Amino acid sequence: MKIKIFAFAISLIAMCMANQASAYSCNNSHKPIVMVHGWLSGTYAFNTMKNYLEDRGYSTCKMYTFGYNYRRDSNKTSASRLSSYVNSVSNANGGKKVTIIAHSNGGLVSRWYRAKLGGYSKNDRFIALGTPHRGTSSAYACFDAACYDMRPNSSFLRSLGGSGCQYSIWTNEDIIVIPYSSSQCGSNYRVPGYASHNGLLTDSDSLNIVRYLTPKY
Amino acid sequence: MYRRFEFVVFFVLLSGSSVYADSGGELEWIATVNETEVTRAYIDFVADSRNVQVAEMGGGDFDSAALDQATLKDVLLTKLLVQAAEEEGLTELPEIKQELEVAHDTLIAQLYVRRISKDYKADESALRKAYAQAPDSERYRFKYYYFNSEVDAQNALKITAKSVNSDSLKLDGLALNVEETTWLDDQMLPQEVAEAIHGLEPGHYLPFSLPLSPDQWAVVQVLDKERFGKPSFEEMQPALEADSKNAYVQSRINSIAAKAEIRFADHRTLRPNWYE
């Protein structure tokens, strides 16, 4: 009995130590992931997704959240900042190419980086969630620098054309991307059931698709 | 009631012909919609914009005549709908009038800002100076220990000390929840956090707890830190130029604001920062 209690205590301590160790350990073989938020959003937008992926074995130490100033900077400027950021992430990870997961306007920033700033050399997996690939009429109601780029037929979108896409996750309940069909580009995955525009970042079906499309290595 | 027949007749007459075929280039109007003239200047503005758009999309050999016809049809339809809206009194509704005023003011203001922006001239020596002053960047990963009151967070903070990793086990047990963050740039952190973390190393704690919401406070530990050098000047140049242009535009706006006399009806009114 005493031996069993002792063994149990040891295993408990070992588990606690393992938990502490896993919190500081980092699987360096994992592929870095760069997350790009949307308009009226920030780096916190990906908290749920980060936890979801972490629970499924992805290393938090390989997740990077890119922040940009959509109020002040056009999407082209933000894309140039993203380019420098991805370079630094890749360099910090032995030159590995990164995965980009982007939400909403972040997808347009990412596409410009990929298609116009040589991003393909550093990024080989791109997942856009609720990105207004062909613009959204809701952007007429905002006047930040990025909003002009999001408007249908903006010079930004005309220059981008259909380039830079790879995977797009969309929902037909999206009332921010109008029409919601604008969020389709490349290989498209519709989230079943109800998922709002911001819900694409937290809905379990959406996260499941993200996980399916995000390589761990 | 708008007269559908007149609209249909005009559209039929114009179909298959260029925008200016019937006018001979001498009249100021291209078409009328229920006797309201649609001017050459109006149509030119829309048509030219669309032609530029298509050309920029790489449609070198596009059907310009077809595009002009489509443009004309859109313009005429728009005029028709505006007339219908006016007949139904839509444009007299207070909320519509308000919206029109806001749209008008916003468009004019934006056009003015765009004009100011065009006055900006990039100065390479200034950009290089800004580049020289730009610091290397740092990235951090944090561990958040969540508590549901400031008191609990402060009590937890008391048991932490610099570079004492064993404390984290104690906090693990006390905290409601524990979470690791992704890598975050120092420039994206709240100012008080960015200032506090410089000099901290992995394992250190922020010397204060963070209020995340009225019932959520966090004690924050630095997990990882990474310093990376700034990119080359050429790579940073677009961003430096954007920053410089923004600063120029803002200074022009500030000088306009400084000369303005603005009075508030109520001393409790929220005042914008530049006014004070």
Question: Would you mind describing this structure in some detail?
Answer:
Chain A has 7 helices and 6 strands. In chain A, helix 3 (75-92) crosses helix 4. Chain A has a 6-stranded parallel sheet with strand order 2-1-3-4-5-6, sandwiched between helices. Chain A is globular. With 217 residues, chain A is α/β, with parallel strands linked by helices. Chain A starts with a helix and ends with a helix. Chain A has helices spanning 2-24, 47-55, 75-92, 105-116, 145-150, 155-160, 204-213; strands at residues 33-36, 63-66, 98-103, 123-129, 167-170, 187-190. In chain B, strand 6 and strand 7 (216-228) form a beta hairpin. Helices cover 50% and strands 16% of the residues of chain B. Chain B is α+β, with helices and mostly antiparallel strands and 276 residues long. In chain B, strands 3, 4, 5, 6 and 7 form a 5-stranded antiparallel sheet that branches. In chain B, strands 1-2 form a two-stranded antiparallel ribbon. In chain B, helix 2 packs across helix 3 and helix 5 (124-133) crosses helix 9 (233-258). Chain A binds chain B through residues 16, 19-20, 23-24, 26, 35, 42-43, 46-47, 50-51, 54, 60-61, 63-67, 72-74, 76-77, 80-81, 83-85, 87-89, 91-92, 143, 153, 155, 158-159, 161, and chain B through 53, 56-58, 106, 110, 137, 139, 141, 143, 165, 168-169, 172, 178-185, 187-188, 223-224, 226, 228, 231, 235-236, 238-239, 242, 246. Strand 2 of chain A pairs parallel with strand 5 of chain B.
